[in-house]
């Protein structure tokens, strides 16, 4: 049974035509890309694929302006189901544009390394339930005050000294292997 919304189920908000919503107006947008043509064919859902037309440079620029990630101050990009490499690449492209974000939630996105990302104004970051194994894999955040890394795979506290020059007030490391390290709390 096809529902009227079936043709939209793999579209991100900025791919839907005839609206003027900007990225900084959304608190929890869907940004991951849908499955490839081949994947949809194997699922028997090729009817949900929007016919793709040649995208002009003007249309690319309009999409970039519509996304408006540069002006986001608070954003929740959790639970994006980033199972494929191309989805993670698009996700990192968006993260690189978050130059004014102050509060960012990236919970449960299967992320392993964001070390190439810089979040210059980020004061609060929640990356719970990902696959980080080290503090070195986190983005550069010179203004970070609250960092939540619960339920990752942080083995040791090496690299934590990088936060000495930040205004870090709280760090949550619940359910990480480093909790079992001797003198964990002191360190």
From TrEMBL:
Cross-referenced Gene3D superfamilies: Ribonuclease Inhibitor
Keyword terms, alphabetized: Leucine-rich repeat, Repeat
GTP-binding is among the record's keywords: no
SUPFAM superfamilies assigned to the protein according to its UniProt record, in alphabetical order: L domain-like
Coiled coil: none
The keyword Iron-sulfur is annotated on this UniProt entry: no
PANTHER family: GENE 29133-RELATED (PTHR18849:SF4), LEUCINE RICH REPEAT PROTEIN (PTHR18849)
Protein's recorded name: Protein tilB
Organism for this UniProt entry: Phoenicopterus ruber ruber
């Amino acid at each position: 049974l096809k529902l009227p919304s079936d043709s939209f189920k793999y579209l991100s908000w900025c791919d839907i035509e005839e609206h003027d919503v900007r990225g900084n107006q959304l608190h929890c947008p869907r940004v991951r890309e849908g499955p490839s043509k081949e994947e949809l064919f194997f699922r028997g859902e090729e009817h949900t694929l929007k016919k793709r037309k040649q995208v002009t440079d003007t249309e690319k620029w309009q999409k970039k302006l519509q996304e408006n990630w540069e002006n986001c101050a608070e954003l929740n990009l959790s639970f994006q189901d980033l199972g494929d490499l191309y989805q993670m690449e698009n996700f990192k492209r968006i993260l690189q544009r978050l130059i004014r974000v102050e509060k960012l939630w990236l919970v449960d996105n299967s992320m392993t390394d964001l070390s190439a990302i810089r979040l210059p104004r980020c004061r609060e970051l929640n990356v719970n339930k990902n696959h980080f194994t080290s503090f070195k894999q986190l983005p550069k955040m010179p203004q970070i005050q609250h960092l939540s890394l619960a339920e990752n795979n942080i083995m040791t506290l090496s690299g934590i000294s990088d936060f000495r020059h930040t205004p870090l007030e709280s760090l949550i490391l619940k359910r990480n292997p480093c909790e079992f390290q001797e003198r964990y709390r002191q360190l």
